[in-house]
Amino acid sequence: MNLFDLKGKTALVTGGNGGIGLGMAQGLAAAGAKVAIAGRDQGKNAAALKTLAGALAIEADLKEEKACRAMVEEAARRLGRLDILVNNAGTNVRKRPEEYSLEEWKLVLDTNLTSAFVASQAAYPHLKRAGGGKIVNIGSMMSLFGAAFVAPYGASKGGIVQLTRALATAWARDNIQVNAVLPGWIDTALTQRARKDIAGLHERVLARTPAGRWGEPGDLSGIAVFLCSKASDFVTGTAIPVDGGYSSQG
Known about the structure:
Layout: E1 10-14, H1 19-30, E2 34-39, H2 42-49, E3 56-59, H3 65-79, E4 84-87, H4 102-129, E5 133-138, H5 151-171, E6 176-183, H6 189-197, H7 201-208, H8 221-227, E7 239-242
Parallel strand pairs: 1-2, 1-4, 2-3, 4-5, 5-6, 6-7
Helix pairs in contact: 1-8, 3-4, 4-5
């Protein structure tokens, strides 16, 4: 369907070299977009490119403002333009709230939330110049729920939802749609570590998720295509769970 056709469009996916980011990048590429992925790990970048025909990789540490802005400029230059930005880069440190150092707090907030703001700000003139565009921010179930072991992560992902609404409101007249995706428990390197660190997590997730399984990165491909295509031109400021029904139970 032409509504979902991304031929001629270009996309930058941060943290696109693995997990959810790679699943979304693969969906965008399959719909015809030319994709750039950004990540710190050169080896992971190279491996991801093998699954993304015609894509390119940018090595960047998004905790640094200068590097984040340079990443956007490099993507726009190498792609020829910029139509789509997916802010997926993220990290987590699991501890009880009283155990975090301020450095750990800043690491998580800078990686998950500040980088999304800086990249969006840097991408704005490129999207406006192109006549409009799409920004997709990656939140989490922790945008909705609390947990004892994710204070900075939960704060960053709650912030992602409010940032999404602010940008959507500010840039709607420029034909830029900004939305958030809230993944549930997806089988990635981050959640595999969580299952080792948190006793009983695997069983609790299965028990609560109506779909009866963990999600896979490919489960995010479809929502990425929808939110980055003409099909969502009148959808902005939303936060859409992709969680197998996990959040439907309140």
